[in-house]
Every structure is written in structure tokens, then in C-alpha cells.
Amino acid sequence: MKVGVVVFPGSNCDADCYRAVESFGVDVRYIWYQDHSLGECDLVVLPGGFSYGDYLRAGAIARFAPIMDEVAVFARAGGLVLGICNGFQVLLECGLLPGAMLPNAVLRFRCESVHLRVESTLSPFTCLCRPGQVLAMPIAHGWGNYYADDATLDELERRGQVVFRYVNEQGVPTSGSNPNGSCRSIAGITNERGNVLGMMPHPERACEAVLGGIDGRWVFASAFEFLSGGVALGRMHLAGDGARH
Amino acid sequence: MQFKARVRVTLKESILDPQGSAVKRALHGMSHDNVLDVRIGKHIELTLTADGPESARRQVQEIAEKLLANPVIERFSFELSEAGGEER
Fold it and tell me: Per CATH, the architecture of B2-82 is what?
């Protein structure tokens, strides 16, 4: 099993992602944004940060980096792609995920720990979780206000593409538990097929107890479980249509 | 020929604009109570060479659609003018 962490100019969570993956004993390497090949890869991580200084819109310029053509081909073939924070923004900008990000409704950069509820365990990234499980993870963003029109949001909900929602400690979504004004408290979504996940919270920053929590390990552990074939494919979105796993 | 395009990118009407709301609140604090709404957008100027206004227009349209505006949340419009043949 091999994981690639894409490095854009301005990425700043690439080393965190590398270390998190490494802590599972999984092969990991960096992929430079100007490369024209992903090499051998089972999971591609687009890390957090401020690619191109967030100029124009967060993720707007990174999506035209040469490596993103390869990421799109990989994703369309069913390869697992995990976009975290700025990585999520890039996935939205390039159209691999629906919707867009707006500045936080509070107009402040939010850097704090939040609670997430697992809304779908059909995703490769949550296949080890219990439905409704509450996970604690940090956020750190100024542009995390997820927006899509109502028709798109209804589709996302209907198809189980909403994977994480901001909730309070008791697992209830409230206005106070929504840190950025995201539509329907959405914190993470997948594409229709389920192989591409974008999420604003940082699982890679919650993989060691010394960092304050290990709930982020659920995301990586699920992906690795899925990739190693440990999860019955019948449960997954990816079943059928030639998906790689 | 050299052209200048002035591109305006604005949030769609349906999208809340927290920056605009903050500015509106500040204006009300400055006793401009009659300001009913504030919306903040971007103004982008491109200087480009092209064979003629039509090809320049097509190219600016493509640039705005692909990069300058995000069609999920934004609209754009632009004006094109010949840049007076100034050489730089």
C-alpha cells in the first residue's frame, strides 16, 4: 500500500500528513506539484495550508498545478483521494467535489478543536466508524464556509455523500457548534462514487495523544482497511464499475 | 493589438456576503443609516494582446469562466477597451 502527499507552494500540513501515515507503518512519499505523474499510489492526500497564498480564492490557483491533472485521472479511475482543509478547497475548485467555499461567516480565522459526527460509514474513509460516532479534531481555516445550492445539498444528503457534520460534544448540530457557517453544518463530503473525500477538520493533527487526541486515526485507519481489502466491498460505493482498491 | 479588460467579479445575489454585512454595520455605526445593503466583489484588470476585439473578448470570457470567477458562488462581467497602442 502506497500513499502520496502532494506538496503545493504554500502547503503547510504536508509533513503532518506524512507523519500521520507513517505512524501506521504505511509507505508514504511526497509528490511535487509540478510533477506530471503520481507514481505508484493507492491514496493521494492533498494537505492543508495556503497554496499560492490563497490568492483569488482558496485553492483556485492550485487546481491548475500540473499534478492536478493526474489527481483528476486517478480520482476518475476510482483511486482514493483525501483533501484536508486547503486540499478540500482545491477539490471543490477543480470540480472533483460539488460546491464552493466562502469566507467563514464569523469573518475570523477559526483555530480550535471541534466535534464531528460520522454521517455515513459507507465511505472508504469512515468504514471502521460507527454511524453517529462523534470524533474530536482540530480546525484551522478562514475559508471553511461550505456552500452549495439546496438542490445540490439535497442530492448530497440523499446519496449519503455528507460524511461529517459539525456537532456539539453530545453529537447534536447546533448553530454554536458550526464554526464557519457551513450549509447544514457540513464538515466533509465525498463525490458520488465515494472515493474522493474533502474535509475541513484536520485528522492528521489528531493522530497522536501528545497532540491532544487520536480521533483522526479513524479516517486513516478506515482508508487503509479499505485499501487492504479488509472491508467487504459489497458495503462500499466503490463496488462494481471497475474501481481500484 | 493591445487591449485592457476590466473584469468585475461579484457574489451571486443568493450568497450571503459576511464582509459586506460587516461594512454595512460599520457604516450604520458612522450614522449612514440609509445604507441598505453592501456587497463586496473583485475588480481585476487584464492587459493582453490579441488580433482583434473579438478574439480578446473570447479569451477574457474563457479566463473569467475558468479562473477569475467560481460559477458556483460568483458572477462576472467585463469591459474591453483598446489600450491605445502603448508599447511596454
Answer: 2-Layer Sandwich (3.30)
Distance CA A173, CA A176 (A): 8
Question: What is the interface pTM, i.e. ipTM, of the complex?
Answer: 0.86
Domain boundaries, chain B: 2-82
Alpha carbon separation from A175 to A41, A107, A157, A180, B3 (Å, rounded) = 39, 16, 19, 10, 48
Which one is the CATH code of A2-235: 3.40.50.880, 3.30.379.10, 3.40.50.720, 3.30.450.20?
A: 3.40.50.880
Collect all residues of chain A within an 8 Å Cβ-Cβ radius of residue B72: 92, 99-100, 147-148
Please report the residues numbered 145 through 164 in chain A whose beta carbons come closer than 8 angstroms to any beta carbon of chain B.
145, 147-149
Determine the distance in angstroms separating the CA of A126 from the nearest CA of chain B, rounded to an integer.
28
Q: Is the pLDDT of residue A235 over 50?
A: no
Interface of B with A (CB under 8 A): 14-16, 18-19, 22, 67-68, 70, 72-73
Edge-to-edge strand ranges of the sheet holding A27-32: A27-32, A2-7, A43-46, A80-84, A196-199, A186-190, A162-167, A110-118, A134-141
pLDDT tens for residues A108-129?
A: 999 999 999 999 999 999 999 9
